[in-house]
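Hey, I'm writing a tutorial for new members on how sequence and structure tokens pair up, and I'd like a real worked example in the thread rather than a made-up one. If someone can provide the structure for the chain below, I'll link this post from the tutorial.
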Amino acid sequence: MPQVGIAFIGTGFIADYHLDGLKAVPGAETRVIVGRDAAKAASLAARFGVPESSIDLAATLARADIDAVIVATPDDTHEAIAVQATAAGKAIMLQKPMAADVAACRRILALAAGAGIDLQVSFMHRYLKEFIAARSMVAAGEIGELMSIRMRNATPGPDWSDWFFKKTRVAGGVVLQLGVHGIDLLTQLCGPIASVSASTAILRGERRLADGRLVPVENPDSAWAVYRFAGGVIASHDMSMIEAAGCDRFRMEIYGTEGTIVLRGDRGLLQFRRGGMADWTTPVLPTRPFGQRHHQRWIDGITGDLPREETARDALGGMLVAEAIARSAAAAGATTDVGAV
């Protein structure tokens, strides 16, 4: 089987997810890890059995044995790295959010399209088995007509770097760090969001990092939004980076005219109840290595075994929603149109 040679760029928290997922894909071979800190890059490479590490991005992109890159660096660096990778002719997966703002997303998309580059954005939650099952159930009409959804994204927040809390680097705060996951799942189920009413806040003005530093919080750590979808569905979305326990990646309650689906609730990954049922049903879900489905789909798009996905276009749509949340919050929750991709 032909191998897709991959350079993984970044040495942060999310690296484990991608590198584990790639190891489970027969057609993928991670050949080098690139980081700013040579020791961290070498340590990560050794832990995952990657043969090389480097601090020279330009030299890595010039290698003929590198076909694709995963960019898992701070959000505000994505555009510059995407420009370099596009010029080098590499397929690209950008860690979410795609870039710092809508304008940057549009520039990256236009550049990749002009060069014929396969550009993707990593939305790991849409590939989770429970969400795939729920989406199929909704599409099959198993809960009747879809009416409303409650969505939660909540964690204690990152404690391994201060850039997450800087307004100049992540203007949207929790919306861009966590909320874009929920926005992606909601739009996968319901289509485009037409308008938003939202509120945001900084509820903890300082954060203690794992290394002991106390850093100021400059961007929202909490947000609440109500979405109206073009198809008529209404969803509420809570986002938090200050919960001591948070929820397990996300929690979603999907309400239809004839039933309810709960994802990652108190009873497990997926429960279903239809009108008249005495109790909840827990469907049996297929088991695959964590991250394998996501990365296999990416590799299949690169090799042409499956059509390329439209995750970058979806990411632009999510950024439009994030910016609409900010505008609505600044206008005391006034209903704000999202705009077209």
